[in-house]
Amino acid sequence: MSSKTRIVVLRMKEIIYTAIFIGLAIVLVMLLLFMFRPKADTSPSASPEAAPTYIPGLYSASIVLGSQNLNVEVTVDADRIHSVTLVPLSEAVTTMYPLMQPAMGSLSAQIVENQSLEGIEYPAGSQYTSMALMKAVEKALEKAKP
To answer: How many Å apart are CA 81 and CA 118, to the nearest integer?
Structure first.
């Protein structure tokens, strides 16, 4: 049985150099990964403070009901909807269209709370009235966009 035993002699200098090169390689790989990773917030629209959502002011859109005109007024800040109102609401309009004011009250509360026109629930019994009012609100908010 012949066994050939080999004895490997390593010099301490070689071990230290190898460890230093492995350490430098790890640092280089980490540096490359850090420099070339994708950025999370590179687009200007990702930051809400980069561009305002609305131009502050009072914007209106009209609805024609028979011979009467109604204005839907939307008051906005740079990033908030403050109020949505129905103006002028005369007695003739209130008498002829009794669902206008309650429908606008419900829609206005939801729009100001959600700060969006998405996910708005129309009041029961006044879906078509609410849809007409929502189209006017959309027109007014389109005027408010920069």
So the answer is: 13
Neighbours of 132 (CB within 10 A): 17
Answer yes or no: are the C-beta atoms of 68 and 93 closer than 8 Å: yes
Report how far residue 122's alpha carbon sits from residue 111's, in angstroms, rounded to the nearest whole number: 11
How far is it, in rounded angstroms, from Cα 44 to Cα 12? 55
Backbone φ, ψ for residue 97 (5° rounding): -130, 80
User: What is the model's pTM?
Assistant: 0.62
| End-to-end CA, the chain | 90
| Angle, alpha carbons 86-88-94 (nearest 5°) | 80
Instruction: Quote the Cα angle for 76-81-86, to 5°.
Output: 85
Residue 67 C-alpha from the chain's centroid? 39
CB 58 within 8 Å of CB 85: no
Say which DSSP state 73 is in.
E
pLDDT digits (tens, 9 = 90+) for 57-69: 999 999 888 788 8
Asked if 51 and 44 count as a contact pair (C-beta separation under 8 A), the reply is yes
